[in-house]
Amino acid sequence: MPPSFTLRIAADDPELEQHVYLTLHVQYSKTYPAAPATFTIKAPMGGLSADHLKTLTNEIQKKAKELARSKQEMVFDQIRQLCADFMNTNHTYQKPNVVKLEAKPTQSLATEMQVRAASAERAQKVKAALEADGQRQLEEERANRLANEMKRDTQRREQKIRADQERKQARERFLDRSEQDDSIVKFDNGAIKLEDGRSFNAVKILMHRNCILGKISAVEPILDSPTTGPSTIELDLHTFHFTPTYYSRSQGRKRLKEVESELQVLRGLSHPNLTRVYAAELKKSLEDGQVLFVLTQRPPSLTLKDVLEQSDTLRPEKAV
Length: 320
Prior knowledge:
Blueprint: E1 4-10, E2 21-27, E3 38-46, H1 50-69, H2 76-89, H3 109-176, E4 179-180, E5 184-186, E6 192-193, E7 199-210, E8 214-223, E9 235-242, H4 250-266, E10 277-285, E11 289-297, H5 304-310, H6 316-319
Antiparallel strand pairs: 1-2, 2-3, 4-7, 5-7, 6-7, 7-8, 8-9, 9-11, 10-11
Helix pairs in contact: 1-2
């Protein structure tokens, strides 16, 4: 296909060249220069009406044919000059009217100094007002933060009071269904460590109550390094008795060992929403066959089931 290119041609007048212009597309013919090139005016363009474009297009084609008959190859400069000359004399652009401002009489030095002083004073007042507004905003933000902190502290204290009351009620319910006991259970699988670094390997049973598979006992750890005050941690000892003959056989004992191993894995889990498992140990009893001891953190008295039964809806922060 014959080559082509595009030219941007503007009026020669410097004041018009940004406003009066056109885009000229040049397409060579296959037999160029025997046959003239085709010139087409395309967008973008400015400052020319439709009649101007039609007239200029006819003049361009006429000039191109004349140059082709004279067998001149460098015709583009003449075409460009034709377009520029046409736009210099034929365009629709209106130059803006320039209004000359009359110079104001100069002020005296004293008057100018007074004006500057007044302007500086106004600027100082504006600056002081902005600084005062900024200081008030800071004080309001500080007051809001303090109020929010006080509100959160109050909520935490109320939650602690409710938690203490729930633990007290749970303990009272436990005592109502429990029997006094003072026996000691010792764990042979190593020391049991608490979160505060203290350790023990035996617990004293305070009281117990029966459940379906055995009994649940409120216990107190017998610490390796006794402290002056009582232990603050609340522990439960779950005792499960496996008396059927099946558990005295190898297959039954294997099943119980698997359960013990699974519980040992749970000892490594610690999360605020999980009941902590501190120890799990399977022992053999002459009277009761196989006995499984599981030492856990005492669960909260108020469970999720209780909350759902008491509330139709939950706020996001309470649900989390």
